[in-house]
Design goal:
five-stranded mixed beta sheet, alpha/beta, 339 residues
Length: 339
């Protein structure tokens, strides 16, 4: 699949009440005490400032990323971060866990703790390809762009991006996968002063244990990588049919704003339906190719999902991420072997 870098923002997408720039992160206030944080390495984050403390949703790719976020949070509040929620186990959402002291609650679905303790997460996907292959490619690409750029301001911006990327390999040496110290199975409700924060497991999908963080009073839902808006999520740990079902459960909740773990916020539940359609089409085409005896790596080149380009601008031609296709083939094999 040919990929192009896109920034896909609808003018009506996010009701920004206030924006504050830290050294690394930009904080957009989307409700009283609720901030969408972007600009760091890894996931986007949600910062929930309560009466006495702060709840943080996800914490980035490295300890350095998490420390930068904690420094920048001080630009919006002096209250301490006492709770971190891991939406799922992938490195770009959890590898900042180790910077927090033992008295900070790190909460995740029970699957997240199991995965981080048993999966050897630094020697498997998505970490291997993202940091071992794509990061060097990104650095090389940025070096060429900096060298070729004539506009001074653009050259400076590219240079800043290059410096950030070049710092990551050294920062990764500090990573110590740290699992949640508090887990739940289906639902956990936090009461933070007047604010209610629900942690919901609505079924498997992106991984075997994804958490939706729901603010019922504010009608806001944080989706992690279960739903990324106009961006296709990584599928190397997916449960494809259950993902569609879990998103149906998501759409039944009463929310007016979605804050995804990557991409940009949105309001329209039809965006979720579009991703369900993509998943269904991908699964159908892959099943047909597998039935014909086509191997997973070849199937990744052959599937044609260009009909979904209007919803996912990164699609530029036939094909799909080979890691997702390999997982899809394994998932179909596992399903076929069930009694």
């Amino acid at each position: 699949m040919k990929i192009v870098a896109t920034t896909f923002v609808l003018a009506i997408t996010i009701p920004v009440l206030f924006a504050q720039n830290g050294k690394t992160y930009k904080f957009e206030r989307v409700a009283e005490g609720v901030y969408y944080a972007t600009g760091g390495v890894g996931s986007n984050n949600v910062v929930i400032v309560n009466d006495q403390d702060v709840v943080l949703v996800d914490d980035g790719t490295t300890p350095a990323t998490a420390r930068a976020l904690l420094v920048d949070i001080k630009s919006i509040t002096n209250k301490p971060v006492r709770t971190v929620i891991n939406t799922h186990f992938h490195y770009d959402h959890t590898d900042g866990n180790s910077v927090f002291s033992p008295d900070v609650e790190i909460i995740g679905h029970e699957y997240v703790r199991t995965a981080m303790l048993t999966f050897d997460v630094l020697h498997r996907e998505p970490y291997k390809t993202s940091q071992g292959v794509r990061l060097p490619e990104q650095i090389a690409s940025l070096q060429k762009q900096v060298a070729a750029e004539k506009d001074a301001s653009r050259k400076a911006a590219l240079g800043k991006d290059l410096a950030v990327a070049q710092a990551i390999p050294e920062q990764l040496k500090e990573v110590q996968p740290t699992p949640p110290n508090v887990t739940y199975a289906s639902k956990l409700t936090l009461h933070k002063g007047k604010r209610e924060i629900q942690l919901l497991f609505l079924g498997r999908g992106h991984t075997g244990g994804d958490t939706f963080v729901y603010l019922p009073q504010e009608r806001i839902i944080c989706t992690g990588d279960m739903e990324e808006g106009a961006r296709l999520a990584y599928m190397g740990d997916a449960f494809f049919d259950e993902w569609v079902t879990s998103l149906n459960a998501l759409k039944k909740l009463d929310f007016a704003l979605v804050l995804p773990g990557h991409g940009t916020p949105f309001r329209d539940k039809n965006v979720i339906t579009a991703f369900q359609s993509y998943l269904t089409d991908l699964t159908k085409q892959a099943a047909s190719l597998r039935k014909q005896g086509i191997a997973a790596d070849d199937a990744a080149k052959r599937v044609d999902l260009t009909s979904h380009k209007k919803d996912f601008p990164e699609i530029q031609g036939p094909g799909a991420d080979v890691r997702g296709m390999r997982r899809l083939y394994q998932w179909m094999q596992d399903r076929d072997q069930k009694p």
